[in-house]
Amino acid sequence: MTADQFLSFIVIGAMMVFFVWGRLRYDIVACSALMLSVAVGIVPFDHAFDGFSDDIVIIVASALIVSAGVARSGIVDAAIQRFLPELQSVRAQLALLVVTVTVLSAFIKNIGALAIMIPVAFQFARRSKVQPSVFLMPMAFGSLIGGLMTQVGTSPNVVVSRMRADLTGESFSMFDFTPVGASLALVGCVFLLLAYRLVPERKSQEVSVNQAIEITDYTAEAMAAPGSPAIGKPVSNLVRIGDGGAVVIAIFRRGTHLAPLPDVVIETDDILLLEGGPAALDRIVSQAKLKIAGERLPMPGDKTRSEIEAIEAVIGSNSSLIGMSAERLALFNNHNVNLLAVSRQGERLKQRLGSIRLQAGDIVVLQGARSELPSFLQDFGCLPLAQREILLGTIRRGTLPLLLLAAAMATTAIGVVPVPVAFFAAALAMVIFRVIPLRDVYRAVDGPILVMLAALIPVSDSLRTTGGSDLIAGWLGGIATHLPPAGALALILIAAMAVTPFLNNAATVLVMAPIAASFATALGYRPDAFLMAVAIGAGSDFLTPIGHQCNTLVMGPGGYRFSDYPRLGLPLSIVIIIATVPLLMWFWPL
User: Fold this and answer.
1) CB 385 within 8 Å of CB 363
2) What is the pTM of this model?
3) Which domains does the chain show, CATH number per domain?
4) Cα 225 from chain centre
5) How far is CA 313 from CA 136, 273, 277, 281, 379, in A?
6) What is the DSSP string of 430-454?
7) What number is the average pLDDT over the span 480-501?
8) Where residue 398 falls among pLDDT bands split at 50, 70, 90?
9) Alpha helix ranges (H) inside 169-252
């Protein structure tokens, strides 16, 4: 072992210890490991920041933006309410999410399949009152397992097919992976549904801040305008759309005040007084296509139309709004500001929104141009709350986000453009078509995750550049010659699983496939089962958030720690190993 190889093993080993320890944030650990690698000479100066231009960083960042655009559109919420209104059990929701992601990942890039379903997971989490972390890690693992089923499902399958052609003159076909891959997918999904409680419930710091200021008793006013799907349906249907997070507290019909009984049928031009949290109110208004009473947007073509946003603010003790109503102030006509909702501590507001006389301490949701709202708040003595996304009253783009995501996945599936280019283009289109406001783009991108990835890539690659991976291969070769066929196959599988977090899955195949083929030849076996073992091992990194971009993608939204992954990933890895060896020996006889 050379000095550089020894230093590479020491740096990577120390980095893993600090990741598991968890006292320092993961991006700080990764950056420290990078600087230490540069200092000891195992990462050259001119390659220290190569990771920031790596495709994986672009893919993860773009997928986060695309997923946020899909979530913001509201189309996922609408689909759930239409097709799965009664799905309440956490286990049933998890089954739907995991199975869907697993099946989709067999035919499209697994990160695309995961990006589609992440907004669904958040919706289910709100409905079941659990943290999204309960769903996201099993979904990420399901996407990895699903990719094992076909040649195009994951990069290791593509690379190992090419290497088989180089070694034997014949590539694996599209569905050569299916018998073993589908069996593993079935075993893996069953395990994830039985063992999902091993996943800790985590929440990110941002979620905690939002929960600390969460207001759940806003009063808003909306009208059932012609064309609304709520017309002709009972009030209870609206409450169901809000998942119980909002209620109808009054109905005004042609000057008459009606009690909002669950069986009251909504008619055209009914004015509905709603009470609940901003997210639930937004779901009701957007899915039922209600018109927020008093809401008036700038005319099409007005340059401020694309800058419309909603914010929460508190009426200060010296505010000139105290004792005034929105109607009396003529807020929109005089100040281009709409009053969308009001919350008053300890009191249920039952009068029409425009007639409510504001008091000190009232919390209001105001809508207006981003450039004009700060001066309005200052002039009228209002204090903005901590910034968080308020979608109530914002402009939506319908099915456009899904179309952009579908276009990205289709172009990669037929090989027109590579994955990073397709997803970057989709993310850019989300911004250009204003699916996501500019102010929210960098909020959607999880900076610490991207920095961790970029810093880790040169550190992990030092294992290859110093010859450390060749050294590992030599050790494995010496061990394998003394093992029975099943043991040698299991050794290759485990080695590929262990190396993947440090080389990425495609590089693992490039390193391990020739070793596997040499094992098979030296032991007098056919190489197919050993090559398949390499592909399965390289595509099954369940132990870390860094070996595959799908694991990385859910780390920030799920609020996971580095040490959370082995809790579910280690037993899943053992299950996959136990199932893979006999399956390979059955379908690919040695």
Assistant:
1) yes
2) 0.65
3) 44-211+398-590 (no CATH), 214-292 (3.30.70.1450), 305-384 (3.30.70.1450)
4) 35
5) 33, 21, 15, 17, 13
6) HHHTTSS-HHHHHHHS-HHHHHHHH
7) 82
8) low
9) 178-195, 205-212, 235-241
